[in-house]
């Protein structure tokens, strides 16, 4: 029988892979952005600055950025060490696609990848030239310069698809990545957490960001419980790790919302998570939903949530940036 041995959740934002002295490049882009989403409303930068009272001046600057960046790297090292020690035979990685695979003409709500090969492809020179300020420099954090190919887990993926379908989840299945390669949400996990040597894995791709078929908070939790049942029914001997990639609040940081989420995860309070207003989960903040299937699966198998670190990485006076979260679920004896 398969066994879930560890759950891990990590942010994957580009700031984690950008030298801290270059974080200001994204701040300049933030100031030009006319569509910042904060607590369900959309703001131009100057309006966001007025709304928040320029309260984050002391949170930005080279010294603070170096400290926060180092704090994040320490937390990432902890997660990498835990996964190495757990030595899973297979991983299930829950993340999202940002129009890297799926385009406007086809956007499945929930997709499982069942290919034998998982390609991590670097951007072309023309793609890099089109990236916003401060993004190209972060690419090596989720993709080696020469690219990489990792092993999929098609038999387990097929079992999960059959089990989820029997449980009335209408999941899509993909056997190729359309020539683009795996999205950066997964590349970051494979490269930074699993050191470019991941076990065979099943990417679970959630559409958390694009209307109109975004899974709700409650549906993401139900998916996690269904994954736990499917893994328990898998007759392989595998030791399974579940990994969530994404979040926390961005591109406008909302520490209050982050704390509400983290507190509910600590208490394993799925009702509190499901009751959060859906309109809060837009833009990058929607990636918090990637954590929920892993959380629910780990709750179902009796694992305890532990916050490794929470690091709000601000890059402007208006509070733009990325709140980084790093967590694991361990047995009560750990």
Quick description:
The chain is α/β, with parallel strands linked by helices and 334 residues long. Helices cover 34% and strands 22% of the residues.
Looking at the structure, the CATH topology is Protocatechuate 4,5-dioxygenase, Chain B
Helix content estimate: 25-40%
Q: Kindly, what is the distance between the CA atoms of the first and last residues, rounded to a whole number of angstroms?
A: 22 Å
CATH-assigned homologous superfamily = LigB-like
The dominant shape is globular
Whole-angstrom Rg:
19 Å
Please tally the β strands and state the result: 13
The CATH class, by name, is Alpha Beta
Order of helices and strands: EHEEHHEEEHEHEHEHEEHHHEE
Report the mean per-residue pLDDT as an integer: 95
Contiguous helical run count: 10
Would you identify the CATH architecture?
Answer: 3-Layer(aba) Sandwich
Give start-end ranges of low-pLDDT stretches.
none
Oligomer: single chain
Number of domains: 1
Question: Main β-sheet: number of strands, strand sense, barrel status?
Answer: 9 strands, mixed
Query: What would you call the structural class?
Result: alpha/beta
State which percent range the strand residues make up. Answer: 15-25%
